Amino acid sequence: MGLAHRQPSKGLLPGHMSRDDYLAASTVLDDLELVRRPDSVGVERAAALAADRSLRFFDALFIDLALEVGVPLLTSDARLARATAGLIDTVLLRGIEP
Questions:
Q1: pTM value?
Q2: Using one digit for the tens of pLDDT, what is the confidence trace for 12-36?
Q3: Hey, which of 26, 58, 61, 83 has its CA 20 to 30 A from 74?
């Protein structure tokens, strides 16, 4: 399974891959040793966030890091701010284009 082909930047797309396969594919990043932070557990948490909240995987990595460190998420993306409601304190930066 080619990760770049099956795990698009927009996260899990319905009909392309099951949630379980998507989560399993995220472990390839750790196997390649390309990710130093987060560790494999953080990558799996981010993949779950992306799948469960229809987030881009890259965004989910930042959310997971903010949760782990205990800081609010700063974003100029209103859609991302709405998607994280109830999960993490999020500050929507106005006047900055995503």
A1: 0.60
A2: 667 777 888 888 877 776 676 654 5
A3: 26
Q: What is the amino acid identity at position 17?
A: M
- Assign 2 a pLDDT band (cuts: 50, 70, 90): very low
Beta bridge partners of 90: 73
Contact between 22 and 7 under an 8 Å Cβ cutoff? The reply is yes
Interatomic CA distance for residues 40 and 43, integer angstroms = 5
Q: Cβ contacts of residue 28 below 8 Å, gap of 6+?
A: 3
Q: Smallest Cα–Cα separation from 54: which of 3, 95, 8?
A: 8
Residue bearing the bigger pLDDT, 3 or 73: 73
Could you tell me the two tokens for 89?
Answer: 């304190």
91 with 74: CB under 8 angstroms? yes
Cβ neighbors of 31 (< 8 A, separation 6 or more) are none
